[in-house]
Amino acid sequence: MPGFFSNTLAVLRREIYRVARQPMYWLLTVILPIVAFAFFAVLLYKEWHATFRSPSWTRTTAPSPAK
């Protein structure tokens, strides 16, 4: 299996070299996904917060005790 590992290492080195040399790869695979996640997290924060903190979310289905 030494051929498999050496070939895999060679491909890994080649691809890392390509990514390091092409700024578009960094932009599309690292920077834009982080920016998109942050944008939607900020945009939808109030809606998520209201959904998970609402009384209906924490209320149990057990009936209330009779008075």
How would the global form be characterised? elongated
| Quaternary assembly | single chain
Distance between the termini: 76 Å
Low-confidence runs of at least 5 consecutive residues: none
Order of helices and strands: HHHH
Please give the radius of gyration in angstroms: 25 Å
Q: Into which percent range does the helicity of residues fall? A: over 70%
Number of helices: 4
- How much of the residues is beta strand, in percent? under 5%
Overall mean confidence score, pLDDT = 81
Structural class: mainly alpha
Main pleated sheet: none
Count the E strands: 0
Secondary structure layout:
Layout: H1 2-21, H2 23-43, H3 45-53, H4 55-58
Overview of this protein structure:
With 67 residues, this protein is mostly helical. Helices cover 81% and strands 0% of the residues. The protein has 4 helices and no strands. It has helices at residues 2-21, 23-43, 45-53, 55-58. The longest helix is centred in the middle third of the chain and has 21 residues, at 23-43. The protein is elongated. The model has no long low-confidence stretch (mean pLDDT 81).
